[in-house]
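Retry 2 of 3 after timeout on previous attempt. Resubmitting structure tokens to design endpoint.
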């Protein structure tokens, strides 16, 4: 789920508008293991996000598709969707859903960047990601720390509708 400065509305707004959330020099930009994730899979994640000493438990559901890209949905434990982002194969970013805690600009800049660093197909990234094991990553930025663990990876094709950036009309 690779992701995120967040606190309740006021803190996030302040962080998103302030330049203080700029990326610091990477602690360790070690490349992840090549081919560590199937091209087509559903990856379930749990994360602990720390912002200014406060910790938030998050869940992530990542659909990977060799043809469609990456679709990440971030929720609070037993709570609402906080962020839903689609990163297409051409690296275009589509914020499908945001929340007061995760604004669209912040999702594009940080959530998508962390997602690409951990799950992208490039051999390495310039982000502050540490690979502690094949299923455990940390992201350390100036304004947040994310401790991400892969809970389950279910290989197999994902529904093509997940990778359609055009929202469906609701009846």
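Retry 2 succeeded. Sequence:
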């Amino acid at each position: 789920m690779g992701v995120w400065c967040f606190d309740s509305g006021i803190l996030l707004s302040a962080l998103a508008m302030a330049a203080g959330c700029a990326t610091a020099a990477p602690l360790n930009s070690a490349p992840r293991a090549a081919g560590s994730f199937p091209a087509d899979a559903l990856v379930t994640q749990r994360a602990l996000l720390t912002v200014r000493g406060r910790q938030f438990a998050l869940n992530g559901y990542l659909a990977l598709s060799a043809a469609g890209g990456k679709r990440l949905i971030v929720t609070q434990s037993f709570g609402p969707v906080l962020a839903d982002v689609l990163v297409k194969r051409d690296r275009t970013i589509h914020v499908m859903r945001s929340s007061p805690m995760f604004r669209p600009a912040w999702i594009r800049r940080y959530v998508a960047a962390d997602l690409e660093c951990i799950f992208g197909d490039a051999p390495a990234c310039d982000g502050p990601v540490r690979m502690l094991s094949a299923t455990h990553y940390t992201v350390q930025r100036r304004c947040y720390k994310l401790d991400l663990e892969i809970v389950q990876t279910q290989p197999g094709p994902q529904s093509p509708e997940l990778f359609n950036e055009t929202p469906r009309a609701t009846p």
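Attempt log closed. Residues 9-30+41-155 form a domain with the Lipocalin fold (CATH 2.40.128).
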